[in-house]
Amino acid sequence: MLVRENGVHSLIIEPVTSRDAGIYTCVASNRAGQNSFSLELIVAARDAHKPPVFLEKLQNTGVAEGYPVRLECRVSGSPPPQIFWKKENESLTYNTDRVSMHQDNYGYLCLLIQGTTKEDAGWYTVSAKNEAGIVSCTARLDIHAQWQQSHTPKTRKVRPSTSRYAALSDQGLDIKAAFMPEANPVHIQPALVESDDL
């Protein structure tokens, strides 16, 4: 479209496409003569907008209470999407000493929880949003209680206390106590049972 306003002539191309690229020449002439100038129009390709998509989704995870855990995924999109984390209906908007959110230039996302507690269990959602769309994925985090195994001493058989070999204990035969019982009286431990089978 050609526009003339206050002695200014303009060529307006709207919308511009790659086919409009090229050399343009403006020619001005009157009875006294003619003049012209040329310029080149370069049309840069616009990046196509692509909605976010998960290349790797969050996975359901379980961990023993007190241990760290990582919830990880990978997302792509153009322009690069904004990332949002939620636990249940609560937004996770900033890092703390125990819970932190990480993101690199390759689309990898990570929610790191240090020293997990039972309260950390629940459903976690990560959302990615740009001008072309929004996408979300959800996974479950379970926190398992740590079981402490009780160490019950094994029952060992020893000869009756009337024998000088009653000094047989968990650590083996105490020679000094065996031959000098009056100097080192033997105290039978609960894990030791007298038996004549030896």
What brief labels describe this structure?
single chain; 198 residues; mainly beta; 3 domains; 3% helix
Helix content: under 10%
* Average residue pLDDT: 81
CATH superfamily of the largest domain: Immunoglobulins
Category from helices, strands and their pairing: mainly beta
Major sheet: size, sense and barrel closure? 5 strands, mixed
Number of strands: 17
The portion of residues forming beta strands comes to: over 45%
CATH class of the largest domain: Mainly Beta
- Spatial ordering of strands, largest sheet: 6-13-12-8-9
Task: Report the span from N to C terminus.
Answer: 114 Å
Return the domain count: 3
Unreliable residue stretches:
162-173
Q: Please name the CATH topology of the largest domain.
A: Immunoglobulin-like
Number of H- or I-type helical stretches? 1
Assign the CATH architecture of the largest domain: Sandwich
Oligomer: single chain
Order of helices and strands: EEEEEEEEEEEEEEEEHE
Question: What does this protein look like?
Answer:
This protein is mainly beta and 198 residues long. It has three domains: 2-41, no CATH class; 50-144, Immunoglobulin-like; 156-194, no CATH class. It has one helix and 17 strands. It has one helix at residues 175-179; strands at residues 2-5, 8-11, 22-30, 33-41, 50-56, 61-64, 69-78, 82-87, 90-92, 99-103, 108-113, 122-130, 133-144, 156-158, 168-169, 172-173, 192-194. Strands 6-13-12-8-9 form a five-stranded mixed beta sheet, with no helix packed on it. A hairpin with a 2-residue loop joins strand 8 (82-87) and strand 9. It is rod-shaped. The relative contact order is 0.14.
